[in-house]
């Protein structure tokens, strides 16, 4: 199956999930996760009409995305991997959306860089819904206070929440928890769901899903 066919299949599955859950068509944004794939593979997706992409690492993204963005001015790039504070300047310069704000040090570094560069990438707080020690993200019960801190103390406009459920668990309860936390925080954007569970995420209210292997295949 070619990339165009895989992309069309994912889009049709999202549309079906929207209909089945009674949501409006186009309610869910597809983020094509292009980590580990080179510029030529990404260009195929751009040619197929995809405009929103996700990357895990700042350094890898710097090697391909400035050129790709110069070629296509309406692409949108999301950072969906953990961010180190010493990469905040590069992240603010390159990414349109940073989905992995998860601790005070990162939030402060981003606030400083956004002011310094005069740029305002949209921000999501990553929540560790499964409390997995090896995984990035703030604990669910600390999320409302952290969102309030980012807003009131640092003046950051937090747009939504993001999560990656444990790989060996039913993702539904994790998606439900993220949706409940978003409502508590007064947020309406939810980045959740990947290649194996994005249709479930749509049913639980995802506004964006992050799909990589189902579009690009596996390396």
Q: Any overview of this molecule?
A:
It is a single chain. The chain is of the alpha/beta class and 219 residues long. 43% of the residues lie in helices and 17% in strands. The chain has ten helices and eight strands. The chain has helices at residues 3-20, 39-47, 58-62, 65-71, 88-94, 104-117, 143-152, 172-185, 198-203, 213-216; strands at residues 29-33, 52-55, 76-79, 97-101, 122-127, 158-163, 189-191, 208-211. Strands 7-6-5-4-3-2-1-8 form an eight-stranded parallel sheet. Helix 6 links the parallel strand 4 (97-101) and strand 5. Helix 5 (88-94) crosses helix 6. The two termini are 15 Å apart.
Cα shape: globular
Global mean pLDDT: 97
Structural class: alpha/beta
Spatial strand arrangement across the major sheet: 7-6-5-4-3-2-1-8
Helix content: 40-55%
Describe the sheet with the most strands. 8 strands, parallel
């Amino acid at each position: 199956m070619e990339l165009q066919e895989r992309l069309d299949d994912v889009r049709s599955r999202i549309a079906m999930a929207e209909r089945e859950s009674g949501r409006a068509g186009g309610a869910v944004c597809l983020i094509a996760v292009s980590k580990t794939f080179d510029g030529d593979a990404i260009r195929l997706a751009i040619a197929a009409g995809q405009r929103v992409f996700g990357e895990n690492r700042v350094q890898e993204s710097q090697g391909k995305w400035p050129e790709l963005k110069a070629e296509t001015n309406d692409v949108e790039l999301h950072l969906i991997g953990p961010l180190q504070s010493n990469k905040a300047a590069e992240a603010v310069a390159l990414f349109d959306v940073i989905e992995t704000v998860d601790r005070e040090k990162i939030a402060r570094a981003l606030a400083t860089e956004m002011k310094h560069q005069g740029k305002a990438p949209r921000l999501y707080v990553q929540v560790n819904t499964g409390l997995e020690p090896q995984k990035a993200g703030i604990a669910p019960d600390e999320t409302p206070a952290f969102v309030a801190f980012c807003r009131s103390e640092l003046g950051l406009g937090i747009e939504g929440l993001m999560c990656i459920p444990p790989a060996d668990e039913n993702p539904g309860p994790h998606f439900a928890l993220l949706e409940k936390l978003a409502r508590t925080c007064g947020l309406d954007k939810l980045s959740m769901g990947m290649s194996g569970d994005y249709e479930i995420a749509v049913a639980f209210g995802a506004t964006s899903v992050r799909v990589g292997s189902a579009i690009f295949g596996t390396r």
